[in-house]
Design a protein that fits this description.
CATH architecture: Orthogonal Bundle
CATH topology: Arc Repressor Mutant, subunit A
CATH class: Mainly Alpha
Largest sheet: 3 strands, parallel
Number of helices: 5
CATH superfamily: Winged helix-like DNA-binding domain superfamily/Winged helix DNA-binding domain
Distance between the termini: 33 Å
Number of strands: 5
Order of helices and strands: EHEHHHHEEE
Strand content: 15-25%
Number of domains: 1
Strand order of the largest sheet: 2-1-5
Helix content: 40-55%
Radius of gyration: 16 Å
Structural class: alpha/beta
Amino acid sequence: MKKSVNVGILSRDEFKQRTIAIAKGEYKPQKDEPKIWFESLQSFAQVLSDDNRMLLHVIEEQKPKSISELGVLTGRNKSNLSRTLHTLAGYGIVDLVRNSARELIPQVKATHFKLEVGI
């Protein structure tokens, strides 16, 4: 299932100004504006690297029940996966949900990204 999200590039200062304006009620984000913001094209490229996009694909298709299971499916080290998944979760790209055994279950929130870049 296609889960699209708009992403944008804003410098740290621009993002801070935008956030303050929203908090003060001076600016109301439009429905179609980016929901996820990156500080640079480089950070966008790092977070959505080929390896990480493949990881998202495996999670979406295989629905692993834990990070350990995802490690088996991908051949990646559990601690490396955990770090990567927490980064992706920080950007709102995945959710990490605890099951009854207190294991984290990765769930993909976005599979397609529309990038908005200004100058």
